[in-house]
C-alpha cells in the first residue's frame, strides 16, 4: 500500500492524484494517474494546486507532484488525439 505524500504522515494512502484534459463532450484526451497518493485524512484537508504546463515533443504527459520537498514523478504516453 502506498504511503501518503504528506511528509511524516504514517497513514496508508488509497487516493491517487491525477489530472485530466477533457474534450467539450467531457471525454478525456488524456488522464494520467500520478505516482502520488493521499490518505483519507489528507485527501479532505484542502490544497493549493499549482499547474505548470511545459510543452514537450514525444506525445507523453509527465506528472510531478510535490509536497514538503518530496516529489513523485510519472510519465505516461498519450494514446488519444484531440
Structure description:
With 82 residues, this protein is mostly beta strands. The chain has one helix at residues 40-43; strands at 15-18, 21-22, 28-30, 33-38, 60-67, 70-77. The strands form three sheets. A two-stranded antiparallel ribbon has the order 1-4. A hairpin with a 2-residue loop joins strand 5 (60-67) and strand 6. The longest helix is centred in the middle third of the chain and has 4 residues, at 40-43. The termini are far apart. The mean pLDDT is 94.
The sequence of SSEs as H and E is: EEEEHEE
Name the beta content range.
Answer: 35-45%
According to DSSP, the number of beta strands is 6
Round the mean pLDDT to the nearest integer and report it: 94
Give the class from helix and strand content and strand pairing: mainly beta
Query: Looking across the biggest beta sheet, what order are the strands in?
Result: 1-4
Quick summary of this structure?
This protein is mainly beta. It contains one helix and six strands, in the order E-E-E-E-H-E-E.
Topology, please?
Layout: E1 15-18, E2 21-22, E3 28-30, E4 33-38, H1 40-43, E5 60-67, E6 70-77
Write out key terms for the chains shown:
82 residues; mainly beta; two-stranded antiparallel sheet; 1 helix; elongated
